[in-house]
Every structure is written in C-alpha cells, then in structure tokens.
Amino acid sequence: MTDHQEQPQQPYYPPRPPYEPARPPYGPFTEPIAAQTSAAEPFTTEHGTTIWPSGGHGGHGGHVPPPADPAPAAFPAPVPGPRRRAKRGVGLMAAVAIAAAAIGGGTATLVQRLAADPATTSASAPVAGTNVAARGAGTVAGVAEAVSPSIVEISAASNSGKSTGSGVIITSDGEIVTNNHVISGASEITVRLDDGKTYPAEVVGTDPDKDLALIKLKGASGLKAASLGNSKDVKVGDEVVAIGSPEGLTGTVTSGIVSALDRDVTVAKDEDQGQDQGQGQGRQQYDPRQGWPFEFGGQQFNGDTGSSKTTYKALQTDASLNPGNSGGALINMNGEIIGINSAMYSPSSSNGSAAGSVGLGFAIPIDTVKADLDGLRSGGDN
C-alpha cells in the first residue's frame, strides 16, 4: 500500500477545430451548449465557415452558433442564452419587427401625405395655378383673403355730386380697371385701398361702348395686383365671389354662382342718362343709391338708360350686388378675376327707393377687359 492515491479519471474533451468559435463560459442555470441541439448535419454560416454540431463529424463535439442577430453587421452579436429564452427573444424581436414595419409604413404614408400638402410647408403660399393660399383653397374666406387687397373703393366727384364705385388693381404701380359709368364726368377721383390708404387718381382711358375705364393712382407702388382669369372657361353653376364697396361699405364680400352666360345687357354710355325732366331741368343725373340703370330683354331696370347707350355680353350671377359694387370684381374659387361687376336689378320699394339686391347681377367678362386693355392704356375714347 503506498501513499499514492489514484486520481479520478477526468472527462475527455476532444480538441476543437481551429476555426470553431470559443465556447462561451457557462453561467448559473445554463445548460451545456451541446445539449441545446440535436442537429447531426453540418451547416455553413454566411461567412462560409462550416459548423459541426455535437455528435456530428467524427464524434467531435461542437456547438451551434447563436441565431443570426438582426442588427447590422457593424454591431457585435450578443452572447447567446438558453434555447428556451432564445426562442422567446426571437419571437419578441419578430413581433417588434412586425410592429415597426407597420408603424414605419404608416409613418411613411403620413410623411408622403404631408409632403404632398403645400399647407404644411407654407400656410400662406398659394396653391399652384391659383391665387389662394392652401389653407383657404376652394373657400369664400380663402378667396376673400387673397383678393381683397386688390379691390378698391372709388369716389368720383362731379358737378352733379359724388358717387361711389369699386375697382380692381391690375398692376403694382396702381393701374385700376373699373366701369366707365363709375368715373364718367368726374372732376376729381379719390381711391381708397383695402388697408385704408387713399390716393388721388386720374383717368387713363375709357371705352363707353364696353362700359370700361382705366384709371391710375398718383404716387403708388408695391400694390398687390389681381390675377386675371379666363372667362371663356366659366360654366353655369360655377361658384363665384363678389367683392366691392356697396353703399360705401368698403371690402364687402358676397358669394353665389354663375347663373347664365352671354346675357345681352344695355347700359347708358355716360353720366347724364335718365329721363328729361322738362322745365329746363335737363337730364336726371345718376344716383348711385338707386342702382345703375340698365335694359335687358327689352325692359328697363333701375331707371331710364337715356338715349346714349351700349350693349355687351355679360355673365349673370346670383351673388348679391348693390349700388357701389359697380367696377368691382367677380372672382372664381381659384382667386382669379373672371368679370367686372357692372349692373344689378334692384326693384323699387313702395316709397320709390331701391329695395336692394334680389340676386340678378351682371358682370363684364374679363376676356373682354383683357382684349381692351391696350386701347384703354392708349387713351381709348377718352
């Protein structure tokens, strides 16, 4: 009997292939990695390295690498845990990935919609092809906000008194289109802008046959010019907005539709329309409070148009027009001027005064105005 004691036999671990990753240390509650797989066939990783599971090649032990990490290759792979936990982790990661994809898709759709909406980039920027800001596109409020700065009130003083009408700014230096009957015979013209500023104005040219006139502000610059549309594109039923200064109420906005096209409207050419009063009193002067006299269908409205008259094709609208709207704008929902308001029917009340608008208004088509601008700028019939 010797003092040498036989040592217990140590378990044999076959050598690892040089290409095999180092075995992660066992931690508490961790099963040997060899017990985590029963695969008997080798497989190849994405880097082209062959891995032999336990019990595989020549009986050599091995281990299965952790599941591929979904994170980019630039980040180190996490240390694999037990298989049961790995399954839960993979399921959770798959659920998160699906949720992220769903949210990401929704976010992409939202971003795409926001990017397509001009209002998110600039609330005051006009919609392409219009004169109206995106947030007000297609609304009366949007049209009024966009166009009101281009509509003015015109006060014309003459020997017979003072009358009030409206006009439309067409150039930044103060060219204004209005009706001839608004300024005809005036010895002094004063224009009030939407912001309250006033300017004296002079007549550039008139065309009584079309009831049009062009005046120019003195010393004005940097004004907001209106956008002129195309009246040939107007259809019955189109929504419209009217802006003017009825009864001196500057910047009054009304709305309606285009009721008819190509109405033959007859109006007086100058300021001394009306019936002969006899006894040396001459002709009755135009009273802006009674509405501008006109004829339609062989009948006279708002008084006698007199002996000097002209007929033009007009747009008919049910947007409320009243005395003082003459020369103002009829506007489409893109903020473009499609007509210059020129006449309205105002039935007389029992006391003989005008009773106000009943939805029968007329406007000179803007295509007629544009065709006449060169002539007006050269003086017209003035």
Structure overview:
The protein has 382 residues and is of the alpha+beta class. It is 15% helix and 27% strand. The chain has four helices and 17 strands. A hairpin with a 2-residue loop joins β3 and β4.
The percent of residues in helical segments reads 10-25%
- Biggest sheet architecture: 6 strands, antiparallel, barrel
Low-confidence stretches: 33-39, 55-62, 96-124, 273-289
Order of helices and strands: EEHHEEEHEEEEEEEEEEEEH
- How many strand elements? 17
The coarse overall form would be elongated
Quaternary structure annotation = single chain
Strand order of the largest sheet: 3-4-5-8-7-6
Structural class: alpha+beta
Rg is 43 Å
Count every helix, treating DSSP H or I runs of 4 or more residues as helices. Answer: 4
Distance separating the two termini:
145 Å
What is the strand content? 25-35%
Mean pLDDT: 74
Topology:
Elements: E1 43-44, E2 50-51, H1 83-116, H2 140-147, E3 151-158, E4 161-169, E5 175-178, H3 180-183, E6 188-192, E7 198-207, E8 212-217, E9 227-228, E10 239-244, E11 252-268, E12 294-296, E13 299-301, E14 309-317, E15 329-332, E16 336-344, E17 361-365, H4 366-377
Parallel strand pairs: 9-16
Antiparallel strand pairs: 1-2, 3-4, 3-6, 4-5, 5-8, 6-7, 7-8, 10-11, 10-15, 11-12, 11-14, 12-13, 14-17, 15-16, 16-17
